[in-house]
User: What shape does this take?
Amino acid sequence: MATDNKDFFKTQTDSSRVKATIISEYFPSYCKIIGRHHVPKKFGYYDMFAGPGMYEDGGLSTPLLVAGKCANDSYLKDRVWMVFNDMMYGDTLKENFEANYPDGTFRYKPFFANRVFGEWPKIDEFLTKNTMEGFYNECPSLLFIDPFGYKHINTSVLAKFLTYWGNEVFIFVNTKRLNAAFENDKFQEDLKIVFPATYQTIKDEKKLISGTVEEKHVFIIENLGKEFQKVLNGRVYYTAFQFREEDQETPSHYLLHITKGAKGFELVKQVYNQYANVDRVLGDYVTYTFDPKKEASSEITMFGDDFKQANLDSLKTQLLAKFAGQSISAEELFTIHQKDCLYARTHYTSALRQLYQEGKISAEIRDDKNHRESVLIIKECIITFK
Assistant: This one.
C-alpha cells in the first residue's frame, strides 16, 4: 500500500498484493465487456504511479500483473496499449518490464515516463484528450492512480477523462491522510482540488461527525464518489473496497472505482467479492473489506464458497419487497436491482435459489435445455414472486 517509506518495495504486503490483483483481474474483463459493444482500435491501461513493477522479494505489482494477463490473451495482446508513469521508478519499471516482455511482445509498444503526476501539464492534456470517433471511443481506457497520500487527486481532470465513452478510473485513496487534512489549515487548498464542487459543504458537515474513525473515513470516500457525480452532472457508479490497517481494526485506504456504466459497476463488485475477507452485511455503511491480519487464517468468509446468511437474508428481503407479485426474468431482475446496491451477481444467484427452496418464488428456465440448478441469472429464467 502507498507509503512514503523508501523501503516500501522491499517486501510486498498482503494488502498490496490484493490491491494489485484486483486491478489485474478487472482490466481484461473490462476490455472484453467493452468489446461486446464495440471493438475499438485499442484499449488503454494507464498507471500513473506505477512503481518498479516488482518487489525485491520477487512479488509482482500491478504493471507486470496486468501485462501478464494481456500477454497470455491473444485478443488483448494485439489491442492493449499500456502507459506507465512513475517519477522515481520509471526507468526501473521499463527495465523490469522489458526483461519479462521484450520489445515486440505487444502490438502497441508500452510507453514509460518518469514525470510528477499532477504537476506535469502534458499528462493532464493526455488524459483529457478526446479519443471519440462518432459515438464510440476508439481508445477506451482504464486509469489507475495510487498516489503517495492524496495530493495528486485532481477530480476535475479525472472527471473529464470519464466523459469519454468506456473510460473508467481506480483511485487508491489514503482516507487516513484525507481525514487528518481537514483538520490542518495548510492542506485546505489541496482539498479544494480533491473536492472542487463541494469542498466547503463537506468540510462543514465533517465537523458534525462524532462517530467512529470508520464512519469518518466512509463519509470521505462516499463524498469523493458523489463529487464525480456533481462535477459530471449525471449518474456515476462508484464502489469502494476497504483496506484495514496492518495493526488496527480501522481502515487506512480505499480502492475507489468510478464508472459511468452499469456493466462496470456489476463487474467491479464481482471482482471485489473475490478478495474481501471480512464478514459484514453489505450496505450504505459497510463495503467489501480486506483485513491483512486475517489473510493467513482459515476462517470461512461470506466471500468464499460459503456465504454468511445475514447477507443473503438481507438481499432476499429486498427482492421480496421490490418484486412482490411480479414475473420477471432473472437477468432483468439482476440488471435492475444491482444498480442501486453492493451485492454481486454471485449473491443474487444464491439468494434466488434459497427463495426457490423456501417456496417464495417459482422459477422456469425456458431454453429447452436440462439444468441441474433451479435458478440461473439468464434472460430465459423466469422468476415469479408469490
Residues 14-290 form a domain with the Rossmann fold fold (CATH 3.40.50.150).
